Amino acid sequence: MRLLRRVLILLVAIAGGVTFSQAPELAQQYRQRLGGAIDELTTIIQNFDEQANHNGLERQAALNIYAVSPEQFLRSQGDSMRQAFDRNEDLSDQLLHLTSASPILRPLIIARSPDAATLANAWRDFVPGVPVSVAGLVWAMLGAVVGLMVAVILVVVLRAIAVIGGRSRGRATPRVATSAGRQVFSEPYPKARH
Hints:
The structure is a single chain. Helix content is 75%, strand content 4%. It has two domains: 1-19 and 134-172; 23-127, no CATH class. A hairpin with a 2-residue loop joins strand 1 (176-179) and strand 2 (182-185). The chain is elongated and about 85 Å long. The chain is mainly alpha-helical.
């Protein structure tokens, strides 16, 4: 039983290490997708600005025309462009934070405020990498420690459940003895003689 417990703890620690070691790789793939999303938004924004300038308008003036239009379609287009500007700013800020942070901290920056669409796409197409970087090794060690703690807690809880379950079964179940082919139920504890 003790050997099985040690093997279980070791396997959970290894699984935690392997899982956490992929955090920097996921952060890298997320960062690449973030850059792609920013490039696409930048193209859309540049096209909008060029069309506005071609018609003698600044960006805000063009957005105001959309906002006061009697056509719902044009108002919706204006709202979409405002969202594109806001999203481009948010993603650019996050990319700046990611680029300036050390590779070890990048997964934490993403976890703090991820872009849901970018993270979902990065996770969908995620390809695990071998953690040969310092960041990968640090996250692998962190994962092994977390896995070790989870395994130890699990073993302690299971042991406590087994001890409690053993005690309650010992009290509730009377002893059964067989005598000449028939069962005789006796008290859990022998009666004292007078």
